[in-house]
Amino acid sequence: CGWNQWAGGTGGSDTAGLGGRGGPYRLDRGHPVHQVSEEMKQQVTEETKERARKMAAEALKKRLEDLDMGELDWQRYNSIRSQVDESINQLRSHLKDLEKRCEERVWLKNQSSGELDENKIVDALSGEKDIFKRRGTPYGSIRSPLLSDPIAIKFVVDISASMYRFNSYDQRLERLLEATCLIMEALRDDKRFKLSIVGHNGSSANIPLVTPERNLNEANQLRVLEGMVANTQYTYAGDNTIEAIELAVGDASKGELVIIISDANLKRYDISVDDLEPLQSPEVHAHLILIGSLGDEASQLTSKIPNERAQVCFHSKDLPLLIKKLVTKSLR
């Protein structure tokens, strides 16, 4: 028993952590996590389990008071978050790995010793001495992008009527809420990123949902998700997908990442691949992720969009790796 001295690790019988023997609640502080065996969990006494349950109830009550959330609010939010718990941890892990990779040693060019740089053969013949390369840590003004200024990521989400209308067909609205919850949970405390989320529907091409200045927590994340549902339920039918993409890409600075999450209900509004030309901006890393489709419309559409600027993703569990790939591409 750690008696709460090591909260945030694997988790003992009475300490919060991940994968523990029956700790009162989950707490992730970035420590390595080791899954405890079922045999060890069975060794925990009923008295200890009851004490852990009371600790969890007290911690939840205090947390909800801090967030100004009622128990029903928490249940609504947790019903969505619980669907992407594993994906949240995966995305955080992927992004940590991304930072480690950025800190790895690189080839240092124009060195006076080391391995001959094949691109310097002509210089060698002319008597140049700094024709070698060697592995080393970047120095001087060379810095990892993830260690300098925060990376701006804008998510553009489809909260049009079709999301609500066809949810019973393929759960596209549920998948959109899970994706948005995943993004907010994984990035909200990561200072390396500036997160913004905007929505669009038949009434507007730019509905602010999350700004970089907004401090996220479970309470206002629930309001974001509930606002998205309300928009899909009460908006007029119509489509502003192209206008939303144009606005997001046009407002983005050079090198920023814009990810559009939508269904493939575009043919109905006579939207063609040519209309998605803003995705090919050379200045902005813009990508379209389709999470819903009637028939094979989504796959047909993405196959016609060049430069891998569009993907189909029908499972929330596939999003962490996809987002990691898009972030990695934006850093090149």
Structural commentary:
The protein has a 6-stranded mixed beta sheet with strand order 6-5-4-7-8-9, sandwiched between helices. Among the domains are: 104-136, no CATH class; 151-331, von Willebrand factor, type A domain (Rossmann fold), CATH 3.40.50.410. The protein is α/β, with parallel strands linked by helices. The chain is 40% helix and 15% strand. It is built from 12 helices and 9 strands. It has helices at 38-42, 46-67, 71-81, 85-102, 121-125, 161-165, 167-170, 172-187, 218-234, 241-251, 297-304, 319-330, and strands at 106-111, 115-116, 132-136, 151-158, 193-200, 207-210, 257-263, 285-292, 310-312. Mean pLDDT is 78; it is low at 1-6 and 17-21.
Give me the side-by-side strand order of the main sheet: 6-5-4-7-8-9
Stretches with pLDDT under 50, minimum 5 residues: 1-6, 17-21
What is the count of helical runs? 12
- On the 0 to 100 scale, the average pLDDT is 78
Major sheet: size, sense and barrel closure? 6 strands, mixed
| Sheet/helix structural class | alpha/beta
List keywords for this structure.
single chain; alpha/beta; Rossmann fold; 332 residues; 15% strand; 12 helices; globular; six-stranded mixed sheet; three-stranded antiparallel sheet; disordered N terminus; VWFA domain-containing protein
Summarize the structure.
The chain contains 12 helices and 9 strands. The protein has helices at 38-42, 46-67, 71-81, 85-102, 121-125, 161-165, 167-170, 172-187, 218-234, 241-251, 297-304, 319-330, and strands at 106-111, 115-116, 132-136, 151-158, 193-200, 207-210, 257-263, 285-292, 310-312. This is VWFA domain-containing protein.
